[in-house]
Amino acid sequence: MGTPAALPLDGLLHVFSFLEAPDLLRAAQVDKVWNEAAEYAFLWRRLSLSRWTFCNISQASKGAQTWKQYYLHRSQLEHQMARGRPSQDFTCKAISGHEGKIDGMAYLSAIEHRFDGQEKSVVCTVSADCTVRAWNVQEGTQIWSSSVQPAPLRSLLTVPEHQLVITRDEQGTIKVWDGQTGKEQATFITHSTWCNLVLCGVPENPFLTVAITEGVLYTLTVPCLKEVSRVTAFQNCHIDLLLCSPDKNWLLVGSTETPDVLAEVFHRDSLTRPSEDKPLSNSLPVGECRNASWAPREAARLIVLHEDRTTRNLSVTTFDIASKRSKNKVEILAQQVASFILPESSRMPHILESHGSDIILLGCGSGMTIFSITGNLLASFQDHHQTITSIWVDSFRVVTSSQDISLRVYTWKREKNTVVLKSCYHLLGGSHRWSSGFTDVACDNVSIVAVETRKCGKSILKAYFFNL
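The chain above was modelled as a monomer; its predicted structure follows.
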């Protein structure tokens, strides 16, 4: 019987394809032949894709050892982010510059894993001081600031693929900015005191949909902000729910302030390719809509928090949205997948987020509860002492911000074919003497950034970036 070293290369690779990373690393130490076999890119590519599903393949496939480096670096980063030891695993910086309250924040850098020594997180903010600014998270420095605008800026979107920033002010003016220089590129005026913005369409050809107080939806080209369509969704109704599905084909439009108005689902094409016919839409068969979220791992799965029209109980209903073609028409179908009534122990949720295809996260006061879409209580956390102000959810972690001036970091773990959420550690902000708490939080794959509001009326950024 021959020794394992006598196996041909194809045989070694076949055996190695069943190994996990620690065993593959040990096998590489046996001899030169095993070392060369254990370096093959497809082995590490398989491990990476089986663990994370989505990887930055364009960056990772350029060399035979790139997939191995990707796997080891990302594993190390996840270990640090789950452990969260100050100074050892991450560095904290306070970033200041705005003269007013920060009302919006978003990453301009792509939220992806890169381990080529060029990792840089860029965050953009808008403020009541009438400026939009870009910040280098790792250096804690301002990259650029716009000139002072005529009115306070209230929200923003970023388009990392095109390095664009889109803002709206409290007078209804929409502007597009060059994300690298801060130069103004286009303006669209709605004359509305309130607007909501969302991006739809494919990344190569995005569109901006703007909902205004009067119940009107504008769809604009990006970056030129040329009007493509104008649709009245509701008559004189404040639209405060405007969400685009993961496949960018569906828009949820609703009002939480008007009980008798049913939430509507619009197909993207009817807004971006207008015709003389009425835009393709359909009302959701639920009562008063309180909040909603699209499930990130499904093309068009919509989770809705609403009040049951018959029992007046607070319920969560999940729909799969699709279109159906018949002879001469197309209709939108909202097929109910699951529904359940929230238990009385769950106070009125003020935040609704989702994970994967079937996990719901609810922020209720200072606590967070996790349900399946069928209503099974999966977990309940009471890690904060004051109200949770925002919940960030991605495929690896959950981060909550709170008025108690702390962030709580959780990580998703797979146990016995089930995904569970583990509470890990706190990231602390400033002093109660100066601070009113965190109001928002966002993450990329190497940093966490939160907005901390000061009692003087100004806001700063607290950046926590992990040591690679």
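The two ends are 45 Å apart (CA to CA).
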